[in-house]
Specification:
By secondary structure, the protein is mainly α. It is built from 15 helices and no strands. The chain has a single domain, classed as Up-down Bundle (Amino acid/polyamine transporter I). It starts with a helix and ends with a helix. 45% of the residues are buried.
């Protein structure tokens, strides 16, 4: 039972790292899956399988090479030269994403008339407190927020909806549900890599990592299906927050609960992205760690002033294409030998050659 509990924690971390405000708002699920109606269900199945397979592979790869950051992972997957480019791209991406999550945190509180500074400031302070102990903080926030997102999906299906959105148009939209599922999976997995490849530092047991990865991957598919079942009958092409639109007439504190879940998903993404930068530059092992982290968050808060929607539209599509150049080699390449075993093999071969030379002499 204790082992299963540890698997569940790994699954929560995986889910919380992948899903964000786009997922919780319903816009991401509708755009990539629900607008394709029945075919979107097949896209969800494909996406769940990809998350389960590649998520587990990323965790095991990180464990075998003892990755301290995503840079170590890139080197063994795509080689030293391209790894330098990937390292730079993902580092810049993580910084921009921190700005995007801070912009979204401010946008949620603005919607309630509380001002941008409250949401953004609370996110910055909360991130600093959470990452005092990075891995423990990452575990804590996801263990809290992910069950609330699951509860949201259940309530949507059990409670029905209170607004009538435009129905879906007859026939399928242009584009391919298959390609949409690949794009969604690739983009979200590249964001999860900074966390997934370093989870071995918190949980070294490969069996638990595999079980947690499989559980998290399939749970992502089930959770997305809960939203898909509600969203597939409507056209949200001109609506930014589909779930909020459908539940505008709900009472009993639903708007505050849902806004908290939405802000919490932004916050978990913020923490995951900040953790990626912390692990990349090993900030937690240096002096003035919290001061350096605070400076990064302050600079990202400046970036966030460009606006949530504008940053999303400019940054996400470009990095979605970049993600495929890493995930395709990752899917096709075999796992390396564990680092200790590989080191022992190299030492044996070296000494064997020395023994042969001595015998010849």
């Amino acid at each position: 039972m204790a082992r299963f509990g540890r698997m569940v924690v790994i699954a929560f971390i995986y889910i919380g790292t992948v899903v964000g405000a786009g997922f919780a708002s319903g816009q991401e699920i509708w755009y990539f899956f629900s607008r394709y109606q029945k075919d979107g269900t097949w896209g969800l199945v494909l996406s769940g399988v990809i998350f389960a397979f590649l998520g587990v592979k990323a965790m095991e790869w990180g464990r075998r090479v003892k990755a301290e950051s995503y840079r170590d992972f890139f080197v063994v997957v795509v080689g030293h030269q391209y790894a330098l480019f990937c390292d730079l791209m993902l580092t810049v991406f993580l910084f921009l994403l921190i700005g995007i999550m801070l912009a979204g945190s401010g946008a949620v509180t603005v919607a309630f008339g509380w001002g941008w500074a409250l949401g953004t400031g609370a996110a910055v302070v909360g991130c600093l407190l959470t990452l005092i102990k990075p891995l423990a903080g990452l575990k804590g926030v996801n263990t809290l927020v992910v069950p609330l997102l699951c509860l949201t999906g259940l309530l949507l299906n059990l409670g029905g909806v209170g607004m009538t959105a435009p129905p879906t148009a007859a026939g399928l939209p242009s584009g391919s549900w298959f390609w949409a599922a690949l794009q969604y999976s690739a983009y979200n997995l590249i964001l999860a890599l900074p966390v997934l490849v370093t989870l071995h530092r918190w949980e070294p047991d490969p069996g638990i990592l595999m079980g947690g990865g499989l559980l998290g991957g399939f749970a992502l598919g089930i959770l997305a299906s809960l939203f898909h079942l509600v969203l597939k009958s409507f056209d949200f092409s001109g609506i930014e927050l589909p779930i909020l639109f459908l539940t505008q007439k709900w009472r009993w504190g639903w708007p505050f609960f849902y806004s908290f879940v939405l802000w919490g998903e932004l916050f978990t993404s913020l923490v995951a992205n900040a953790y990626g930068l912390v692990s990349r530059f090993h900030l937690e092992h240096g002096q003035a760690y919290l001061g350096k982290l605070a400076l990064v968050l302050f600079l990202a808060a400046v970036v966030s002033r460009f606006g949530f929607a504008r940053l999303l539209q400019k940054v996400y599509p470009f990095y979605g294409c970049f993600a495929l150049t890493i995930l395709v080699p990752m899917a096709l390449c075999p796992l390396p030998k564990p680092k200790k075993e590989a080191d022992k093999a190299r030492k044996r071969r070296f000494f064997d050659r020395v023994d042969v030379d001595i015998n010849k002499r």
